[in-house]
Amino acid sequence: MPFKGVDYFAVDSLFSEQELLVRQTARRFADERAVPLMRDCFREARFPHELIPEMAALGFLGANLEGYGCAGMTHVEYGLIMQELERADSGLRSFVSVQGGLVMYPILTYGSEEQKQRWLPALQSGEAVGCFGLTEPDFGSNPAGMRTTARKEGACWVLNGEKTWITNGTLAQVALVWARTDAGVRGFLVERGTPGFRTSDIHGKWSMRASVTSSLSFSDCRVPDSALLPGAQGLKGPLSCLSQARYGIGWGALGAAMDCYETARQYAVLRKQFDDRPIASHQLVQEKLAWMITEITKAQLLAVHAGRLKDRNQIEPAHISMLKRNNVAIALECARLSRDLLGANGITDEYPIMRHLCNLETVKTYEGTDHIHALVIGERITGVPAYK
Questions:
Q1: pTM check: above 0.90
Q2: Count of other CB atoms within 10 angstroms of residue 2
Q3: Top-level CATH class of 130-227?
Q4: Burial letters for 211-220: b for 16+ Cβ neighbours within 10 Å, e otherwise?
Q5: What pLDDT is stored for residue 112 in this prediction?
Q6: Distance CA 300, CA 7 (A)
Q7: Topology of 236-382 in CATH?
Q8: Residue 83 needs a FRET pair 20 to 30 A away by CA distance; which of 55, 128, 301, 362 works?
């Protein structure tokens, strides 16, 4: 059945007609094209490549960026797209988040005009796929410890090192790789096929199975000086990209939470037990549903306000940390409560709940763990960093 939305507190009244139109477009795409595919994609550990051209044609790739073929949507409109895509599956939203927030955004913000002209139209149209190489086998929450290096040799840079847990890695025609240089951390655009650059997929995942997750390795990988992002120097560059992706996650997790809640609500109304009464008539069931709709509503209001702040260029990274941490946490709990309400049926893939639950375990960890975001918030309110 088409998704009718979750709106207990008239949150839709906060959106403009254009924002509601964007959401409806994304919702229709999710219902008609994505949702029917995702169960089998999760079973088969397959990303639905066939949806890339369709998402590109709808303007979803780099939706909130300006120029070079991008749709130039507001950040609220972009957030609503992320919500609907993750309602289908976290892997689908993750693809779009990485393409736009972690590859296109830094090229637009820190790249040369030549780099923008070469890559942004191709990435926006889906003709090219990108990935973002920051996390390493020994350094996730502490990117400052990265071991991947780039040394200058004449008109070239020579990269050595390894990146892992990279979304879209083996799909990508270009990897935005962060490496340590004598002048600090710098970003490089490394094209597929460059000698010394290899990619491999990570298998055996019980989460994000409909997403491509990869490792990247660099062994005396030579790239021209033109591959260097001229405007990014130091960790501020990659961290600013992560803020873009985390913002999208804050909205996306809402979609997963809504899907779990609505599945459980419908099931509770239809499922009969004890004297042929719907289980929705029981107090313990209603308490769980009441908790879910309350937390979803609060998360919606947090996301909308974050979007308005971002559209006014007033949002801070610590604000985004609260958005990501809170909304993923409540989505994960909604998935667990929904699974409980469906009983044994909740563990089957006839329903989307267990898939969302498994995916959200990853979403809680990537783009900054729950604990790291707690420390970001803690530093914001005390002025004292507690990372070490």
A1: yes
A2: 10
A3: mainly beta
A4: bbbbbbbbee
A5: 98
A6: 9
A7: Butyryl-CoA Dehydrogenase, subunit A; domain 3 (1.20.140)
A8: 128
**What fold is seen in the domain 11-125?**
Butyryl-Coa Dehydrogenase, subunit A; domain 1 (1.10.540)
Distance CA 23, CA 31 (A): 12
Cα separation of 90 and 85, whole Å?
7
Low-confidence ranges of the chain (pLDDT < 50): none
DSSP run (H or E) holding 278: strand 277-278
Q: What is the DSSP letter of 230?
A: T
Give the residues across from 133 on adjacent strands. 177
Going from N- to C-terminal start, the domains of the chain cover 11-125, 130-227, 236-382
Residue written as tokens 């940390």?
Answer: 321
Model pLDDT, residue 1: 76
Question: DSSP for 120-172?
Answer: HHHHHHTSS-EEEE--BTTBSS-GGG---EEEEETTEEEEEEEEEEEETTTT-
Active site amino acids: 367
